[in-house]
UniProtKB/TrEMBL annotation:
Subcellular location(s) of the protein: Cell membrane
Gene Ontology terms describing biological process: regulation of cell shape
Membrane topology designation: Multi-pass membrane protein
InterPro entries found in the cross-reference section: Cell_shape_determining_MreD
Transmembrane segments: 6-24, 36-62, 74-93, 105-128, 134-163
Keyword field contains Cytoplasm: no
Name by which UniProt lists this protein: Rod shape-determining protein MreD
Protein's organism: freshwater metagenome
Any one annotated GO CC term: plasma membrane
Length: 173
């Protein structure tokens, strides 16, 4: 990876993280809303190779762990996003249909956001954290899935164009 790619990608991740922390977390949205940074990171991983997907998950998880709004143990989001980032990039690696079909990538990213939240919840339970009632968990997961499914199609063309610009590729979404 060249210095240009690393610099531009790191700057982009930090900018999206700052937008998430400064603006999106301040919105009062039903069901807890959505994480723009998580959606961005998983879209980026879906467009990448498995190695880059795992690295994307590591960096995104580390930044989410640094967030003041995260209540879990430090490193928990990092572990979750390394696994989910690798998984989503592995699923989309060999199949051009996944990368070229907007519906498929929307479904894949939305389900990956749900999988990340469920894995985070399970790790929280293993670590002995109080996670709330069953009804509130199910409501939060379902509304988070709906918000992700609504935000991914809006963010996808922008992320794909920036990904193409930084990596000098021409993916069509």
């Amino acid at each position: 990876m060249s210095t240009r790619k690393i610099s531009l990608t790191a700057a982009l991740f930090i900018i999206i993280y700052i937008v998430q922390e400064a603006f999106v977390t301040q919105l009062q949205i039903a069901g807890g809303g959505f994480s723009l940074f998580l959606i961005f990171a998983l879209l980026w991983a879906a467009l990448s190779s498995p190695n880059v997907g795992a690295l994307t998950g590591f960096v995104a998880g580390f930044l989410i762990d640094l967030s003041q709004s995260t209540a879990g143990a430090f490193g928990q989001w990092t572990l979750v996003l390394v696994l989910v980032g690798f998984g989503i990039s592995y699923l989309g690696l060999g199949y051009e249909n996944v990368r070229l079909n907007p519906f498929t990538i929307t479904f894949l990213v939305s389900v990956s956001v749900l999988a990340a939240r469920i894995l985070y919840l399970l790790l929280s339970l293993l670590l002995g954290s109080n996670v709330g009632s069953f009804a509130s968990i199910i409501t939060s997961l379902l509304l988070g899935l709906l918000w992700s499914a609504a935000v991914v199609p809006i963010a996808m063309p922008v992320v794909a164009r920036v990904f193409d610009f930084i990596n000098d590729t021409r993916l069509r979404l």
